[in-house]
Amino acid sequence: MPDTAHSAAAFPATSRAKQIRVWDLPVRLFHWLLVVTILIAFLSSEEESALAPWHIPAGWITAVLIAFRLVWGFVGGEHARFADFLKPGRIGHHLASLFSGKPERSIGHNALGGVAIIALLGTVAGIIYTGATMQGDAGEELHETLGNILLGLIALHVIAVIAMSVLTKDNLIRAFVTGRKRADQHPGISDARPPASVAIPIAAVAMGSAAYGITLIDPVAFVPGAHAEAGEAGGGEAGEDGDD
Ligand code: HEM
Ligand code: HEM
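^ thats the input. predicted complex w/ protoporphyrin IX containing FE below
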């Protein structure tokens, strides 16, 4: 049973708003690094781009980030855990609160957000897979299509984050930077349980293994410009003949 009596109520409105810890630092770092690597992957995706040598390394670094997130979903802080936000049974309830015009605040990710997270991470994983196994124009087309789907999901995600922040007056973006939310807006909620004590070593091993596994598939995975086929002009139409 949560102890609700003293957190918000005992503080007069004039005192500085009390904050509760919600998001652990690694999950926030993960998110903003993911934004950077995906931005680089998009900016570098055209052969003519000055950033083209970085496309494949950025994609592989993204893969290492995804490996981190999979593990962190089991050992991370309370609201970073999959069990905390993958709640299919609550999606209906959440939608009802949205359509009632009074969406409820959520301390961690809400149930619909959980679906968005799986869609975002799943699409990113699909892009990495199709990038790594790309052979010929058909493979590239699938990779690009998933890239376009990801752009749509990101637009939806950012719109949803802003809309929920406005509708619930709970600044989600600030919270995902500082890790904290205002206690008075979440009465009865206490600081999130921190990550497991072995979480950092486990995550480090997962990321190290992922990076090592990637170099077994692609020895120059993290070397910018080492992949001639991604940055090189010429010979690109070689797959044209006999493609049915
Ligand atoms: C490449 C673009 C982006 C991708 C792939 C992405 C993906 C994600 C993912 C996977 C999560 C879940 C975090 C976790 O628990 O691991 C998340 C949460 C979040 N993202 Fe993004 N994101 C992107 C861009 C942005 C941008 C530009 C913003 C700010 C405007 C933003 C704001 C947030 C916020 C506030 C949350 C937490 C939402 C909540 O309170 O439940 N994201 N994002
Ligand atoms: C999140 C990661 C990634 C994103 C968002 C992404 C996105 C894209 C996009 C939008 C294109 C443009 C396709 C076109 O216009 O023809 C592209 C091309 C390509 N991508 Fe990725 N990609 C990612 C990761 C990867 C990875 C991990 C690899 C390989 C291991 C890879 C290999 C390639 C190659 C070889 C091309 C063709 C480039 C060219 O025609 O010059 N990508 N990618």
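The CA atoms of residues 75 and 196 lie 6 Å apart.
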